[in-house]
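Continuing the series of single-chain predictions for the mutant panel. This is the parent chain; the variants come on the following pages.
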Amino acid sequence: MKQSKRVEAFEKSVHNKFNIFNSMFLNLPYRKDSNIGILIPVLYQQCKQELEQGRHPKDILDSFFSSFANIQDEKEKIEFMFRVIQYVERQVVLFDSVEDAAFSELRDLGNYLLVKDFFQLIDSKKNWSSISEKLSTFSARIVFTAHPTQFYPPAVLDIISTLRNLIEDNKINEIDMTLQQLGLTSLINSKKPTPLDEARNIIYFLRNVYYDAVGDLYGSIKEHTGNKNFSNPNIIKLGFWPGGDRDGNPFVTADITMSVADELRMTLMKCYYQDIKTLQQKLTFRAVEEPLDQLREKLYNAMFNPAVIIKWDEIINPLSEIRQIIISRYHGLYLKYLDKLIDKVSIFGIHFANLDIRQDNSIHRNSVEAILKREGIISSGIVELTKEELTEILLHKKFSLNAADYDDELIKDTILNISQLKFIQQKNGEEGCNRYIISNSEDIYSVLFVYALFRWCGWDDQKITFDIIPLFETMEGMRVSEATMQELFSIPEYRAHVSQRHNKQTIMLGYSDGTKDGGYLRANWSIFRTKEILSEVCDKNNIKAIFFDGRGGPPARGGGKTHRFYAAQSRNISNHEIQLTIQGQTITSTYATKEKFIHNCEQLLTAGLSNSFSEGEHDIPEDLRLLLEEMADLSYAKYSSLKAHEKFIPYLENKSTLKYYGKANIGSRPGKRGSKSKLELADLRAISFVGSWSQLKQNVPGYFGTGTAIQKMISEGKLDGLKRLFKEVAFFKALILNSMMSLSKCNFDLTSYIKDDPEYSDFWHILYDEFNLSVEMLLLISGYHELMEEEPVAKGSIRIREKIALPLLVIQQYALQKISENSENKEAYEKLVTRSLYGNINAGRNSA
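Parent structure:
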């Protein structure tokens, strides 16, 4: 019943409202565009009907131009298509705003997909004292990344916020005015953003949403526990990658890292200043006037000048003293407002968000090699050293490094950056920057190189106040992770380092590159098993394992329904904290408003806590584990054969938008690692890889191999076991439901013209056949009649978004066809393809 009410509410508050406001928007006259708004619905119908009839995008648009738009000149056609794209982009913004405005109503009606209502855990016999005890030590860390998937400029974010509020209140006249403003405001960056620009885009959310949202959530948690002495300011932590993530991004330098650290701190001082200013309107008592004025002045001086540092004690101590005065002399008047600020200061410190540092293992290896050459220990390479010799050097040899002694810019920057991290901690507090993540970790030296670099850059090896975090993301990295971590823990010096880091070892697992490397099922099952194995390794060594999940937005990159994912972890997986990355559309779709942030954080905490009281509910029986392992192997074999196909990379290069990602002003980071001219899958960034399949509406990384694996197992008489697997194993069901989401966003009609291409016809059919087989097999083992059967509201949202984006996608394919024909307007068509990326990325919200 609740579900039918939610569907009804979605139709009324989202679908119908969007249609009303969209009709207003489409009738706004701009320059030459007075008829474009009228023609877009016609174009959509033309695209939908004729794609279903098997017509090609080029034929569809040529027919549309002659029959409906009355345009013959090619340049006028190109101009028209640019205008359509601009309209579609704004339709997406409008739909985002309408959907966000309906969030509270849909939430209040209940969602059968939620793990439980806030902290109403699985075992109803558990009382709040046991839950409160777990809450006092549990933590969820949400780490914002700069991955180039969706970042509206701040002006557009403000418009979205305004529209959302106006739509909630049905203020038609103001909505009309704001739609006009939207129509005249650029939605894209005029130039490629710098890492500092990307940081400021996310800091916008920190200041305008998360500062108050985290404070309100913490207050709600304290109230629910019923324990007035409850204290766990780390229950929600915010992490930050822009400006610190230099993996594959040469534009992130030591100077940028320092600038971002300053920007985070100064923005937080502005938030504190505003709260003090507001408090002074209530705390108008003589005894607190002077300490409030003094604190306000200190904060003001630290708001704009990065050289002015205010220590945490200089904020919290005056507030605590003021609190005692309010209690003792002013009857505790307005105490709750002061306590709320004190809570925020306890949560955010002087850093706002923890700035993580990330770099690829190969850069550290090159740096160490260059250092050892300069010191005369080796002449050509590290391979000259035995394992024992190299380990001895990394653990005990002492050097004093000077970045100016090295010519290679990356090596120089690596030394500069590690050398300055201590200074960042002095300015922003240790919590401001105390994690160093190593991409492509595959052995102990991935960690020991960084350990040695810290020692040589001026850190005492007994006081390296950083968590050194290996990131296992490839199939090989995960395969050797058990041996790698056990060997590390067996090294006394490293074990001592872990001890002074509170006997906690954070380990990151990369879903994006894991899926790119191993395919959807194999990667996800390998990560699940790796977590179980590493939990056991850490437990044997009396160390708490903390898993940091590199989850992107789309299922193809490890994303999907976050609370469902964490609720499905087995009790064999360490559950001290939840840590995950979120990016682009996930930020705007899941955490963009205070209400959404609080709701989704509640669900995240509930999912994690439920595992502490589930008493093995999500354990996977051995016979079903064997089925999962077999399915993962079969799926991997199918995916591996696709990767090995001679047309795999050429198809992406020549038939997708892959090469245009680097031309779009979406993100600062290049689309691939390294500078090799020949494109190799290993160098390709997962975002460009997954995004290109998404633009094609083929979403290969989100399902490929699944259908073949299930079909093979059914042919061996294992259908009942697969149905049981879906019904009884929450982890497997979460995987399948996420894969259904990827399949729901596919539209092979869009690229059906490729089946007539003599070079790529066979490859396209391989993709198409596996898509159809995967749909058939997933419906069979789930018992559903249609994809996403249990999620009609989410499916409805996808349906509308796909409808909005369809004209844009047809234009994109039309332009790609023109480019392949070497049109005399090739440059204009290439710009058209690049421009078309934005709207589809934003419409998809999680890209696949």
